[in-house]
């Protein structure tokens, strides 16, 4: 090739060297939107699907593909596609079910608020109707499913924030009987506790932003499919709607899942110990944690989670079941973070009535048990004694504040008060 000018060298120098010998021990970040080949026919063959390879990152990227491959293996699926957020993943999984005007989605009444909004607003606009049912009442669910004949059934393995555990196998049986597709959001349980495809679900979705990433530094989502025949529809939803995951985020998520087993083991163990101790605090009227389920629910728990534990989220109801008491408590915490997320390696505490379920009317919230004094604790990997001590002091401090005419709650110098939504 002829000698090029300096301005051309600025553009091309050092790029597209041959790949180094040896496979990198950790997947590199392929921060490239497109991929270059010797001959244009090579690109043709890849686009035609005759050979594998990457052409354009919206259609596939090696770092993202590594994350997808890891998640397909962890959930026991035949393929996985990654998205820019959990909501994008849920949206795509629904598109892959080929809904059309008049179709019905039968959703758990305990769904995450934004998922419910997605169904009602985005899908509702296209005349797809969403109906809800209690997915923990199998008899009622079967009756409703036979009555309304949904195309899709959608639930969460572990509900937010009331921690109801779904019997995925029983729900999948109903879905199969009426030829509905079953989508399970496994964000809170993770494959450490449950692998819904093994129980008969068609798709598993995750907000990878939560436990999969685990470090509060990446936003992403993933859909894992059980059957190969669903792959083209999901790939279409990914590449045409275009909500792809960036290779930078994929790298963080890949690193996150390497410690998922360790984190979950520690976080579930911490949660079990903390939940037991919180039960003895007089300022708390109820500690919701799957370990304390009654004997009926214990069967569901065993069939869904097996022996792996009870999860790492605890929900408490304050004896003084008011927003004032809840805010007083939250603002008195020094160590636990007021973070609008779950599944991070630090303990994060949220007020569901004004965060995850903010968009519901107060009456609707009351109806489903989300009262003003309800608090969700996502237990981290810290020394649980420190977390217990922080919660205990915050309960005592906020009660003192209140009995002293409730001066405005004191924000910690290290963790200033923030809006949680
Ligand atoms: N599913 C569940 C159970 C969630 O809690 C969330 C977010 O909180 C989502 C999905 C949406 O995930 P993302 O925020 O990554 O879009």
Beta-strand percentage range: 5-15%
- The third-level CATH topology of the largest domain is Aspartate Aminotransferase, domain 2
Low-pLDDT parts are 404-421
Task: Characterize the overall form.
Answer: globular
Structural Rg: 24 Å
CATH superfamily of the largest domain: Type I PLP-dependent aspartate aminotransferase-like (Major domain)
How many individual domains?
A: 2
Helix-strand category: alpha/beta
Descriptive terms for the model:
alpha/beta, 15 helices, Aspartate Aminotransferase, domain 2, 2 domains, disordered C terminus, globular, Aspartate Aminotransferase, domain 1, 39% helix, seven-stranded mixed sheet
Structure overview:
The chain folds into 2 domains: 60-257, Type I PLP-dependent aspartate aminotransferase-like (Major domain) (Aspartate Aminotransferase, domain 2, 3-Layer(aba) Sandwich), CATH 3.40.640.10; 260-403, Aspartate Aminotransferase, domain 1 (Alpha-Beta Complex). It is 39% helix and 13% strand. It is built from 15 helices and 11 strands. The strands form 2 sheets. It has a 7-stranded mixed beta sheet with strand order 1-7-6-5-4-2-3, sandwiched between helices. The chain has a 4-stranded antiparallel beta sheet with strand order 8-9-11-10, covered by helices on one side. Helix 5 links the parallel strand 2 (104-108) and strand 3. Helix 6 runs parallel beside helix 7 (168-177). The chain is globular. Pyridoxal-5'-phosphate binds at residues 85-87, 112, 114-115, 156, 160, 185, 187-188, 207, 209, 219, 221.
């Amino acid at each position: 090739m002829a000698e090029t000018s300096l301005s051309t060298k600025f553009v091309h120098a050092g790029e597209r060297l041959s790949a180094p010998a040896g496979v990198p021990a950790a997947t590199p970040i392929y921060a490239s939107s497109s991929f270059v080949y010797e001959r244009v026919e090579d690109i043709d063959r890849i686009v035609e699907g005759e050979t594998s390879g990457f052409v354009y990152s919206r259609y596939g990227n090696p770092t993202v593909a590594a994350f997808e491959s890891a998640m397909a293996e962890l959930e026991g699926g035949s393929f996985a596609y990654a998205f820019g957020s959990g909501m994008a993943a849920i949206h795509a999984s629904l598109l892959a079910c080929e809904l059309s005007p008049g179709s019905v989605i039968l959703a758990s009444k305990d769904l995450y608020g934004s998922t419910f909004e997605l169904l009602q607003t985005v899908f509702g606009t296209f005349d797809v109707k969403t109906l809800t049912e209690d997915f923990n009442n199998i008899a009622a669910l079967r009756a409703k499913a036979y009555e309304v004949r949904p195309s899709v059934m959608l639930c969460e393995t572990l509900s937010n924030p009331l921690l109801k555990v779904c019997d995925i196998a029983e729900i999948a049986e109903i879905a199969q009987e009426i030829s509905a597709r079953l989508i399970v959001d496994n964000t809170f349980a993770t494959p450490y506790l449950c692998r819904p495809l093994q129980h008969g679900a068609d798709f598993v979705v995750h907000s990878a932003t939560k436990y999969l990433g685990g470090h509060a530094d990446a936003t992403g989502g993933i859909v894992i499919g059980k059957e190969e025949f669903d792959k083209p529809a999901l790939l279409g939803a990914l590449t045409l709607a275009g909500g792809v995951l960036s290779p930078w985020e994929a790298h963080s998520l890949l690193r996150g899942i390497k410690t998922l087993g360790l984190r979950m083991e520690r976080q579930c163990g911490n949660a079990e110990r903390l939940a037991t101790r919180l039960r003895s605090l007089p300022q708390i009227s109820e500690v919701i944690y799957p370990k304390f389920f009654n004997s009926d629910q214990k069967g569901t728990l065993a069939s869904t989670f097996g022996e792996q534990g009870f999860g790492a989220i605890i929900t408490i109801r304050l004896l003084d079941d008011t927003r004032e008491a809840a805010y007083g408590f939250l603002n008195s915490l020094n160590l636990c973070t007021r973070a609008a997320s779950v599944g991070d390696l630090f303990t994060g505490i949220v007020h569901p009535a004004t965060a995850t379920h903010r968009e519901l009317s107060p009456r609707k919230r009351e109806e489903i048990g989300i009262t003003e004094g309800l608090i969700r604790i996502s237990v981290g990997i810290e020394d649980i004694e420190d977390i217990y001590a922080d919660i205990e002091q915050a309960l005592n401090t906020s009660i003192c504040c209140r009995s002293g005419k409730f001066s405005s709650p004191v924000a910690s110098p290290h963790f200033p008060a923030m809006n949680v939504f």
